[in-house]
Design goal:
By secondary structure, this protein is an alpha+beta fold. The chain has helices at about 40-50, 85-105, 125-135, 145-160; strands at about 15-20, 20-25, 30-35, 35-40, 60-65, 75-80, 105-115. It contains 4 helices and 7 strands; from the N terminus they run E-E-E-E-H-E-E-H-E-H-H.
Length: about 170
């Protein structure tokens, strides 16, 4: 169908009308849906930019979701990075903490990439990164995933928010 039931042309864009003006907010295909909640990738990217503008500046990060094993989605963050992998661990930790703090989301993997692909008009090609990650092609072949770090981060947040220190895990 080219048109929605109420007469709008289906372009794949998402947006809203405010005071008679149409604002384009993003693309339906790029929407990240985790636990039934919708997140725009650029909202996640802007939080990282606010965290450290030099390290996570505009178009130096890309947030995507990929299918998990339970019919849901997992969050992956790509970071443009050209240093060594051991030095990247601190950056990955900073990304995980910022996303957990602002959105309460666990980042499945923080992936260093030498560049974030863009279209000829400068838009981030998030789907391309997700497809490369899933197919295990470069640049995603060197992805860094630290499950135990997630658990520790969640435990720290629970302790900070609720004062609970005796947290049992099966990890």
């Amino acid at each position: 169908d080219t048109f929605s039931a109420d007469g709008w042309l289906k372009t794949g864009d998402t947006g809203f009308i405010h005071e008679g003006n149409l604002y384009i907010a993003g693309r339906e295909k790029e929407m990240i849906i985790i636990n039934g909640l919708n997140y725009y990738p650029y909202d996640l990217e802007r939080v990282l930019e606010a965290e450290d503008g030099k390290l996570f500046g505009l178009t130096k990060t890309a947030a995507v979701s990929v299918p998990d094993n339970n019919n849901g989605e997992e969050l992956i963050i790509f970071v443009q990075y050209r240093g060594s992998e051991p030095q990247f661990a601190g950056i990955a930790e900073q990304v995980r903490k910022a996303i957990m703090k602002h959105f309460g989301l666990v980042v499945k993997a923080v992936v260093p990439v030498s560049r974030i692909p863009k279209t000829t008009s400068g838009k981030l090609q998030r789907r391309k990164l997700a497809e490369e990650y899933l197919s295990k092609k470069a640049p995603a072949a060197n992805k860094i995933s630290q499950y135990s770090t997630y658990v520790q981060l969640i435990q720290q947040e629970i302790t900070a928010l609720f004062g609970i220190t005796d947290i049992q895990t099966d990890v």
